[in-house]
Amino acid sequence: MLCVGRIATLQARYGLTMPDPNARPSDASLKAAIATLEPYRRAVSPLFIGMDKIPDTRPLLFVGNHTLGGVLDVPLMNRELFVEKDIFVRSLGDHFHFDLPLWRDLVTTFGVVDGTRENCARLMKAGECVLVFPGGAREVTKRKGELYKLIWKERRGFARLARAHNCTIVPFSAIGVEDAFDIVLDADDFMKSPAGTIAKYMGWRTDLIPPITRGLAGTPLPRPERFYFRFGDPIDPASFEGDEEDAIWALREATRTAVEQGIEELMTYRDTDPERHLSGRIKRKLLG
Q: Nearest-5° angle of CA 120, CA 125, CA 130?
């Protein structure tokens, strides 16, 4: 649900027709997307834990950690929620997605909305299931030493909206993507270079500077690591009492703690999983 004014601005700027931001993709589009994902899903063999904890009530707010790059694991999680739980997730995207011709059309077509509070509130009022990453772009463009680290700063907007609209929070955690890459150079390295001086002068957003990574056989391609997802116990935003600002912060911290605990549990599981690497998954297939 893009703001009307923003749609008009984008249309005027690029002279293109925007897709209806309120519309869900057609059944044919969803089937095509699922089919397209299938080879990739088989390659990384994603494991989902705790899906039985997802409540049937609506609206729901899925809150979790953003992994490096931001696009390798989210489609797999959204696919699983749709296929196994009949949940079509409306993801809140960074504003920059909607400033990119063609790309904005693609993400809008598949349910991503401009991540404004107004749009989030409309979705909650409509009983939709919303996905938010409080870490935003900065959590996607991780630096060295930030493996699966939450970078939420002081953000609490999701908790405020959940309280205002009595929207149950489903904390989730994801790992695997950041095992598939090694960061060679990050935004801090870039900003120390002559190009960084230009970036400062131009006022570029440093949280959008991606790291240079190395993956499979030293190439930019990711190593075929397994992906792991965990859904935690749902959190009732109305269960936090006292001063409203204190309650909002407590809800935010409870969600953050649940996500971090989920990451730790998944890392423990991963370390003993015989199918973590592709060789183990192939061996299982061969042995039946």
A: 45
- Reported as type and span, the H/E element at residue 125 is helix 117-125
The Cα 219–Cα 231 span in angstroms is 32
Beta strand 168-175 pairing with 228-231: antiparallel
Contacts of 186 (CB under 8 A, 6+ apart): 141, 142, 143, 144, 211, 212
For residues 94 and 102, what is the distance between their CA atoms, to the nearest angstrom? 16
What is the C-alpha separation between 158 and 167, in angstroms, rounded?
Answer: 10
Element containing residue 260 per DSSP (H, E): helix 244-271
Measured from the Cβ of residue 133, the count of other Cβ atoms closer than 10 Å reads: 24
Whether 73 contacts 176, CB under 8 Å: yes
Angle at the Cα of 285 from the Cα atoms of 283 and 288, rounded to 5 degrees: 105
Q: Which of 77, 71, 140, 137 is nearest to 103 (CA)?
A: 71
Helix, coil or strand: residue 60: strand
DSSP 8-state symbol, 134: T
Whether residue 143 contacts residue 177, with contact meaning beta carbons closer than 8 Å, is answered with no
- At 5 the pLDDT is 43
pTM of the model as a whole: 0.87
* pLDDT surpassing 50 at residue 6: no
The stretch 272-277 carries a mean pLDDT of 96
Q: Which two tokens stand for residue 102?
A: 């063609």
> Can you list the domains of the chain with their CATH numbers?
4-180+226-287 (3.40.1130)
Per-residue model confidence (pLDDT) at position 201: 84
